[in-house]
Amino acid sequence: MANPRAEAEDKLGGDYEARVLEPSPPAVTDPPYADDPVYPGEVPEGRELVSPVQNRGDHTWDEIAAEDPDIAPWCADRWLGAWKRLEPLPPSFAETRVGLHRIAEGVVALERLPPSEIALRYTRGGFGTPFFVKDGADCQVRVEHGELVRQTGPEERHEPLPDVEIAAATALGDLYGLACSVLEQLRADEADGDPSLVQLWPEHFDIAIDLGSEAAGERATYGASPGDDDHQEPYLYVSPWTREVSGDLWSASGFKGAELGYSELIAAEDQRPAALDFMRERHRALQEA
Fold it and tell me: What burial letters (b/e) apply to 138-154, b meaning 16+ CB within 10 Å?
């Protein structure tokens, strides 16, 4: 049974409170019907908090992984710390991305409750719903390394997805994992900018947040797309809501804003800081305009 927060605390030997990037039970039954996995919340007296982002706890998972190399692969697999590198995409990536986009829209999002809520989240190896209550049980539907997983309480049912190449599906999950890590750090750093939850939108298949003052014209969407009609490869992007932008910082193709292509991202010496710098530079530019 998937319970990422409980698994993380068990991995730490029960000595710490833990926060992760993935949704965990119990289900949230009030709007927005989704947990905020990195939110510190209340930490019991005498215990310390381990977080995937800086400024949100007593320790980061990256610090824990540096002190205990045995835990580093576990952290890297979940994009909590000891971050692995994104690699060149498998040849089947574009075809797999199109197929999984259909699954996200036509299967996973439709099983989320309440029916009015469609936003998804990054989950290890792919994407899935927040936990929701159905027939009295905490449930989740997710795609994990190219399999469809339906979880009801402690029970899981795995269904292979035809015509989905596992390596390409895993590459998509890693893209969302890196993006989720970056976006959660941006949320933590810019808490005064009214950041939204990190959401994975099934219509466009991108993972994103909204950030910045709308009244001041600073609000924009920050996210990662696995590719679309105008982009053959994935890309990071910043798309201002109302501010008219131009110049070297704002040279996206197909929309008003900025983009960082996958090829440029994976060529960076340190990919996660490169992604964060791309988004932070645009955020500062909107504040200073």
Answer: bbbbbbbbbbbbbbbee
At 157-206, the pLDDT tens digits run 999 999 899 999 999 999 999 999 999 999 999 999 999 999 999 999 99
Find all residues with CB under 8 Å of 129, minimum gap 6, and list them: 23, 108, 109, 111, 112, 120, 121, 140, 141, 142
Can you tell me the distance from the alpha carbon of 11 to that of 111, in angstroms, rounded to the nearest whole number?
31
Q: At residue 106, what is the residue type?
A: G
For residue 245, the tally of other CB atoms under 10 A from its CB is 19
Distances in whole angstroms, Cα of residue 169 to Cα of each of 32, 64, 126:
28, 29, 7
Which 3 state secondary structure label does DSSP give 120?
A: strand
CA 263, CA 63: separation in Å to the nearest integer?
A: 29
Q: How far apart are CA 258 and CA 260, in angstroms?
A: 7
Give tens-digit pLDDT for 221-279: 999 999 999 999 999 999 999 999 999 999 999 999 999 999 999 999 999 999 999 99
- For residues 144 and 164, is the Cβ–Cβ distance under 8 A? no
Cα–Cα nearest to 63, from 82, 49, 78, 41: 82
- Report which of 266, 276, 268 is spatially closest to residue 86, judged by C-alpha positions: 266
- The domain spans of the chain are 4-77, 93-165, 167-288
Mean of pLDDT over the chain: 96
